[in-house]
């Protein structure tokens, strides 16, 4: 079947409506042509992010009532610890308020100025956190990741030769950890194979460098492994996920993605030594060790969400829903990163609007046009988010990919919403040649790697 029916029914509805054209124009002006500047009521279908925007299950809402709000040693913390042990296999658990908080405490404890962190690719806030401690990420993803049209089952894989080269170039003493993002968000929500994770593990062992996973979308990654990695086809998603986790010394997690909560994050470590290295910063920035900036009820919902994220009927529908949107766009010839990612469609804005030079932010122009067309909100992930200035020459270094992302919220929108989104995008695609403007930055606060969130833009 091309359309997989939803494995849930709707118990509570949240009314949404389509603002008319005049309202949309007004909203764009008010928001300075930056989609982060729109208000929720300005939007009909909000695909800005899949982060914290999913619907909780009735079991999660029930768990919320069990929340124990004790400052230290809450029952809810132990429920979370047990779920982490069962689902992920780690003994040491640090709750944090979200993913970047997990990164802040981890990088702050382990990374020093001048360090390099080899990655497949980091996401924008992860990258900004590495800059924030005076270090830099080194992208070691396979070359296929940079070719949106090219099919590769594991386009998020680390190129082992690039990883070895990075270690040799910068030296073990400047590499406090290796990190692999599963799935690779910046590269199109593309998975990393279990075989690749095991190879990265071997390299980590060879040089004695800890391996961390940025595991925000670890269940979707495991589902792709089950469906695409021959050696794993008879394993359950839960078994595959455990096997992936077994490769890592520690993970940082934005629980707002696969773990199905509206707020929350985790650092999980294999050893007590690593746990105690990170923990003091948690107390400084997040809260005591057993709540880390979350309410007890959040910990309960997260414990339940971790168990739900590996349910195969849920995952199968989720991945199929994203693929359905991809199929509809593909039939109309809309260029996007192939194969479709786990959490989102990443439209290739450079191919969609080839007449707009990258310095005029085609991904963000596309975002404005898609909003204008159908009050659908996505997000540009191109030059505006990822261009950097070469410190030596002052030259702008543009990213290799210029993408516009439509992130699908978990358990939130129906397949017919996907049809509406496809129609909106296809309408813009049909009139693409008439889109003859770019965007320029009128104002942006000085903040390396973060200005796209706050920039004021205008058409030129
Ligand atoms: N790592 C990855 C791979 C992410 O995609 C994100 C967030 C983070 C870390 C940070 O987590 O938001 O909980 O602090 N990505 C969101 C997105 C915001 O839209 O893709 P956070």
From TrEMBL:
Alphabetical keyword list: Lyase, Pyridoxal phosphate
Pfam family, one: Beta_elim_lyase
UniProt cross-references to InterPro entries, sorted A to Z: ArAA_b-elim_lyase/Thr_aldolase, Beta-eliminating_lyase, PyrdxlP-dep_Trfase, PyrdxlP-dep_Trfase_major, PyrdxlP-dep_Trfase_small
Chain positions with N6-(pyridoxal phosphate)lysine modification: 257
Documented EC number(s): 4.1.99.1
Residue span, Aromatic amino acid beta-eliminating lyase/threonine aldolase domain: 46-423
One Gene Ontology term of the molecular function aspect: tryptophanase activity
Cofactor: pyridoxal 5'-phosphate
Highest rank taxon of the organism: Bacteria
Entry similarity comment: Belongs to the beta-eliminating lyase family.
Protein's name in the database: Tryptophanase
Organism: Thermanaerovibrio acidaminovorans (strain ATCC 49978 / DSM 6589 / Su883)
